[in-house]
């Protein structure tokens, strides 16, 4: 790789992708939720064609798959690399004006008159003194999540297309939409992929890889009371709002998102609305252990029957839906999946550490579909925020790492 530098291909592509207004919309009833996501997918497809990769499938539902055939005759495990083109809507995600800072001086970065990216809040900035970082103008997020991932994968494509001597097995690039709405894989047909292993390029800090995420359940709890005129309510009214309030009070506070970290799971009440007659509450339950998730679902059911006893005449129903499951259960089945990452880290001289995702990824859904999919860092920081920044040298490390991963499978 001595004649090839990933820095320029990644930076140029990343900057051009940030110009697409691909903020996704969690309230849209169609896919992709915003049309610019398909515009970007089309632009990526054209770019792939100009690299000489003509075998692409574009799906109107917001997916692009590119297939790069093997250039060796012996059988090699097919692998895929995946990234999403949408950006979050937590702050404004459209109209991004990325600013490149070359030879960063290690000091605070003034984004605009109001906002400053400080070293105190971002001690990792110091590590990138002298290198290139990319920041926002303070009015929007940057979109390193996950356009950095897209740019890194496309830079690998450029390397492969310009280095015919680089031996590789069958490779697929998968670009998805609406990851940030939690619906990234809802319309995805995994039978379109030949890959036996996939890697999402959708992490953060340099060196971090993730093979474990939460098991997640959404539980709807409905409280049914007996309404009546409040002036003559004694002994008759069963107030569903009081039932819900009493129920929520019984849920352990030491198992809430704000009281837990690391491997501890939680209950979180969200989205409550009600009247005397009917109150509904949504709970998000999370845990790395499936048994613990199931225990919490059962605990809510017990609280439901307790609430019915406390409010004679009232009814409580509990309905759970498993949203995603811990990908570790699928990834552990094939030890070569994580070995491919750590062995490649050694080859590329990149120090790696495994982290837990206190959330889910598209890779978790793909893992459950039978393709184990760990997650790799991009070099993006402060994701979903106007303080988002990208460390270009971390992104370059990621590209070097996945180049080695391709080599690992062909060896
Ligand atoms: Zn992401």
Bound molecules: zinc ion
Number of helices: 9
Q: Domains counted in the coordinates: how many?
A: 2
CA gyration radius, whole angstroms: 24 Å
Strand order in the largest sheet: 1-2-8-3-9-16-10-15
What's the shape? Answer: globular
* Protein structure class: alpha+beta
CATH-defined fold name of the largest domain? Aminopeptidase
Terminus-to-terminus distance: 17 Å
Largest sheet: 8 strands, mixed
Could you state the order of secondary-structure elements as H and E? HHEEEEEEEHEEEEHEEHEHHEHEEEH
Beta-strand content: 15-25%
- CATH superfamily annotation of the largest domain: Zn peptidases
What is the CATH class designation of the largest domain?
A: Alpha Beta
CATH architectural arrangement of the largest domain:
3-Layer(aba) Sandwich
* Portion of residues within helices: 25-40%
Question: Tally of extended strands?
Answer: 18
Average pLDDT score: 96
Sequence stretches where pLDDT stays below 50 over 5 or more residues: none
């Amino acid at each position: 790789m001595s004649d090839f530098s990933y820095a320029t291909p990644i930076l140029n592509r990343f900057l051009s992708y940030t110009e697409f207004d691909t903020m996704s919309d969690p309230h849209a009833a169609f896919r992709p939720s915003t049309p610019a996501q398909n515009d970007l997918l089309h632009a990526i497809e054209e770019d792939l064609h100009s690299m000489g990769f003509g075998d692409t499938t574009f799906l109107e539902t917001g997916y692009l798959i590119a297939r790069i055939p093997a250039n060796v005759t012996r059988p090699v495990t097919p692998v895929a690399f995946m990234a999403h083109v949408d950006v979050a809507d937590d702050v404004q995600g459209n109209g991004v004006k990325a600013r490149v800072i070359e030879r960063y001086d290690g000091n605070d970065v003034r984004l605009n008159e109001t906002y400053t990216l400080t070293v105190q809040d971002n001690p990792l900035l110091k590590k990138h003194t002298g290198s290139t970082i990319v920041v926002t103008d303070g009015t929007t997020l940057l979109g390193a999540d996950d356009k950095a991932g897209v740019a890194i994968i496309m830079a690998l494509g450029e390397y492969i297309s310009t280095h015919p001597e680089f031996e590789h097995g069958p490779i697929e690039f998968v670009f998805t939409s609406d990851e940030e709405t939690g619906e990234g894989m809802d319309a995805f047909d995994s039978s379109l992929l030949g890959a036996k292993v996939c890697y999402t390029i959708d992490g953060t800090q340099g060196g971090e890889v993730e093979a474990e995420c939460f098991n997640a359940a959404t539980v709807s709890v409905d409280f049914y009371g007996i309404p009546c005129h409040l002036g003559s309510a004694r002994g008759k009214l069963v107030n569903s709002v009081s039932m819900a309030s009493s129920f929520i009070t019984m849920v352990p506070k030491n198992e809430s998102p704000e009281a837990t970290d690391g491997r501890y799971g939680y209950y979180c009440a969200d989205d409550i609305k009600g009247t005397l007659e009917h109150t509904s509450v949504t709970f998000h339950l999370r845990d790395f252990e499936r048994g613990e998730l199931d225990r919490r679902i059962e605990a809510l059911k017990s609280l439901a029957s307790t609430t019915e006893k406390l409010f004679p005449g009232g009814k409580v129903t509990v309905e759970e839906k498993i949203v995603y499951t811990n990908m570790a259960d699928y990834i552990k089945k094939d030890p070569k999946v994580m070995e491919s990452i750590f062995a490649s880290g050694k080859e590329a001289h990149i120090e790696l550490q495994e982290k837990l995702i206190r959330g889910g990824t598209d890779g978790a859904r793909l893992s459950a579909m039978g393709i184990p999919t760990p997650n790799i860092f991009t070099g993006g920081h402060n994701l979903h925020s106007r303080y988002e920044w990208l460390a270009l040298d971390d992104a370059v490390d990621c590209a070097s790492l996945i180049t080695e991963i391709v080599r690992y499978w062909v060896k």
